[in-house]
Amino acid sequence: MSNLISCLDCNKQISKQAISCPNCGRPIKKTQTEQLANAISISSTIVGGFILFVIASLFISYLFLPNTNININSDEQFEIIDYFKSDKEPSISVPLFKENILYLGIKNKEKTENILATHSCKKLQQKGYDLTNVIVKIFDVDKWYSDGELITLGEKRCID
Which of 47, 69, 76, 90 lies 20 to 30 Å from 100, alpha-carbon distance? Predict the structure, then answer.
């Protein structure tokens, strides 16, 4: 088996082990430095692609997953529930807190449900509560009592 190859520029016979043609100087095989630079370039592309994927995943999760971090502690949640249980808000009969959602059940639908949700957010903000990431959902109490379904009639995200 021959250990010689022809140079593509000058057609002289040269060793397969040669880095360049001794006759014309054409590079024959990559040096270790060039091979290392090529490997680093490929590695950088893979690492960069992975970092881009992680950043895109975090951004998408930020956009589409609800943020349940709220600044209202459990004592304040009980205060809010007591406020809505009092006669100060007669149209609301059942207040509940679950994670970052304040559910307010109504029996008579005399107000538009979205307006009632907005009104509830404003009332709580006036009382000094930090409602960042809190959602107020209005639901039909009669439907909940009869079918066990909590159907949202109106909704408002409370943001200061």
Answer: 90
